Here is the input.
Amino acid sequence: MTHLPASEDKDDVSTEPAKARVLMCPPTAYALRYEINPWMSLSNTPDVALAARQWDALHHVLAEDVGASIALIPQAPDAPDMVFTANAGLTRGPFALLANFRHRERQVEEPHFRAWFEANGYKVWTLPPSCKFEGEGDALFAGEILLAGYLKRSDIAGHGRISDMFGVPVLSLELVDDRWYHLDTCCFPLTADTLVYYPGAFDPYARQVLESNFHTIEVRVEEALRFACNAVVIGNNVVLPSGCPHLTADLQARGVTVWPVELSEFLKAGGAAKCLTLFLR
Ligand code: ARG
Here is the structure.
């Protein structure tokens, strides 16, 4: 098992550099207007004023406590899920691979994210329209390896191209439970060689691939259901939704600084801390 050193300068083990940059979208038009995952119910809509306070708290932890630099994109009025910027695409250096959303309801976000990437100097890549890809929701770097989820929202057909585009090996991971419909709902790389994950979300072969490539920390089902895996890792800090005491204790025992944030109103849409942030590498 990997034990993280207490000091800040340990680029060799961190997944993200200490001075991370992320994209967030203030929830000015956040709402629940359709159901595209099992968490969303038109009979259980978010309290948008409370959602705004929870988003502010997440922004504060990331900017002030963790020291991330945060870029903002305005929310389009007709795109209630646009707050989940993790799905905008996948960035590395000057390149941004734009999302091809599975659902019509979220495809309206694509031109807004494209415009933001272009205005911010990214060269924007796309996959063929038939090849669905939901950005960092289904693609997470573990050091120089890209973990890529497929079946629920993103298509495995794109993985070869993504590997060629970014020049990295891709580990394709089949997701088998609709409740963990994006990769970032059921795993996060803590370091380049240590992965936190909920095994029940993956097919047996994906589990075997993860177990043979990483040291793993298992999340229990009750915390996986609280979106414990939907965490933002910056240096030695992990920002995750509150209500996950076991994972919090496991991480603290390894010397990680854990920042729980209450995100109940975003859980109603099937998202939490990671879904609300996109890394700008
Ligand atoms: N309601 C959104 C959807 O179903 C939530 C997206 C959560 N994002 C994530 N990266 N897991 O698409």
